[in-house]
Amino acid sequence: MTLWLMAGLLFTPLAWAVLTLLTDFVWGRRVTWVGILVQVLVSLGLWLTVAQHGGFYYDLGGWGAPLGIELRVDGLAVTFVLLTAAVASACGLHAGVYIDQHKPWHRYFWPLFWFLWSGLNAVWLGGDLFNLYVGLELISLSAVGLVALGGNANALRASIRYLLAALLGSLAYLLGVALIYGQFGTLSIAGVVAWLDNHSAPAGPGLALALMITGLALKTALFPLHRWLPPAHGIAKSPVSALLSALVVKASFYIAARLWLAFGESLGSLAAAQMVGLLGGAAVVWGSWLACKQAQLKQVVAYSSVAQIGYLFLLFPLTYSVSESVSLQAQQGITLQVISHALAKAAMFLAAGNLILSVGSSRIDALAGVSRFLPFSLFSFGLAGVSLMSLPPSGGFAAKWLLLQASLGSGQWWWALVLLAGGLLSAAYLFRIYRASFAENPETDQFFHPSKSLEIIPMVLAVMALGLGFVSEQVLSVMALPFAEEGAP
Hints:
It comes from Marinobacter salexigens. The chain has 19 helices and 2 strands. By secondary structure, the protein is mainly α.
């Protein structure tokens, strides 16, 4: 059973990418809908397997490390696999209706979509440093191609900037991987941890960890390495923007978090942890402030992503040289923040795409009067914003509450100020959009009404982000499950 689940997660998306490459947009959409159903069922099956039997290591093809590819299937990994299935399915269904099927280059959306999904699953389950790099590159190249599908000069310019940033981040990460291999003779994360547990930490790998974290921070768009993100997310098609913000930038952060939790105590330092946290806090304030000043709707949401990414990097100071209970609170809070932000931001980008389609303009002031003609999409946008503002009972509130407790419990009260400032600034730029939508518009009969299916999809994601606060305990309980004794169940 496990063999089929792993094959379904890793190889089915690649097969679907090849199939859709041979079809036009319409047939690619039909093939994709079948593939989405398969991926959702396989993701649920693996999640239930881990929930019942615990996590396990899986040797792909029966070849173990260091010769083979070792996959780490634990509660955190399958949670992100299931999150990917939910968000990618919503974006795929939305794109099938939203994207213009008559433009010939749009047929490449589906193969790029499936290559991206395959890379995401590879990252969530990866157990060694090099194969994480392979998955990360597959994600980056697919994402760059999806941005370029905008088809105009601005889209190409944004995609090239994205490509250069991604390649630079990958080079820094790969250099760190080479240094780790030169010191420890293995690329398995578990193998390096086992070596560090039995030996004193050498000086060299500290540089390797710094290089890898820096490269991943660039790919995650941590301030001040964020300049590539707003143009790419703002110019891309709305389903693509949702994928980029909800999942793509989370993949590089996921690797950075894995590395820090595995090697941070041995190879990191208090100064490094506080510096990364400081950059995260600056991202929250600066990104939110810039979001308040944007004239374009999708640019507001894009700069909001810069701000929300900053919260994630509070993991570094809140898990270094603290008690086990505080570290656990921080890890749980960051995990809920990732899930909540993925659902909410995907809903916001899809709803923003609907609003732009309705009014025929991406400017915020063009939304005047749309509240009477497209209340469903506007409500989805606001409902997702509840989670970004960290209002109860949303998943964002549960995440920030855990981070607040970790901040105070570790004596680092200054991060609590960042959480408070971020929530207030989020309310400022979200209410600005709502104020524009309720303004008077003398041309109230000029709005286009999108398909009802386009409006339902972001609503479902927004409700999931809100409802995460009610089921957060159940989600976290699966993540905390221990590993099985040997191999797969």
